[in-house]
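Minutes, structural biology subgroup

Action item carried over from last meeting: produce the structure token record for D-2-hydroxyacid dehydrogenase (Shinella yambaruensis). EB confirmed the sequence was re-checked against the source entry. Recorded below for completeness.
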Amino acid sequence: MKSDVLVAYPLRPRQMALLEEAYTVHRLDLLKGDDREAMLAEAGPRCTAMVVNGHVAIDDAFLARLPALKLAACSSAGYDQMDVAAMTRRGITLTNTSDVLLDDVADMALLLMLAARRRLVVGDRYVRSGDWGRQGMMPLTTSTAGKRAGIVGLGRIGLAIARRCEAVGLTIGYYGRSRKTGNDYAYFDDPVKLAEWADILLVATPGGAETEGLISAAVLDALGPAGSLVNIARGSVVDEPALIRALSEGRIASAGLDVYYNEPHPDPAFAALDNVVLYPHHASGTEETRDRMAQLVIDNLAAFFAGKPLLTPVNGAGAVRQAK
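Output recorded by EB:
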């Protein structure tokens, strides 16, 4: 008899086919209202595993509908909308997919940094509009090589960003709850101190209540009028009104953003600014990486039902907190 698995967020087509072949799948993601409640009432008590994503809010009340649940396999790196403490109390292990998206997310951080500092979008528009021919060369931009990059959150993704920043000639410093071993980067115990030191601040810390508003007005002021901010973490980590004011008033030079406080409807003030490069929370959005993320969910489910160690546990015995 196949085991029951609840799907609160779909996987890629190939992995959905594998899921449906191996398990009795209950597609909660396709239902709304009364139909959703009916499925939870009927199938919820039988499901020992669930497929989720960082866009799914999981609280204690929802978990109470799934009394047999022991695994929540998340197809994203972030899980800040999930009550991990409630899962742990109920003996539910959460897994995520940080390791397989490192390269694409780190690449995007580098891309946003260079695009913001070299005004790539402005330059593209300058050529397309014909202003180059009418007005001559566009104004000079700011070099990146030789500057200081401060990374907020030196987990796996932060380390991947650091290595790329080193490759383009940047000196690395970082902020975190504690000093990390295995590197000789400058450590700062306060994000304001890091921002004072840095020319570029790259945010790669997890979201959630612990980091909400971490990049505050004070941090942005410390970064200064020649500084750049890059955020590939979560929108909640940055005080967005303070960031918009800093960009509008020239208190920082530029920003590159993949994430926003209100997704998918970010503050329209960003669209009016030409010193910010915007990307639609798509840093991991490549065919290859999304396939690997979905496959890791399948592999965690297979390990769980085979009684083997989970590949990427977030909580519980043997868990390793992920970078984003």
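Discussion: The first strand starts at residue 4 and ends at 7.
Next step: EB to file the record with the rest of the batch.
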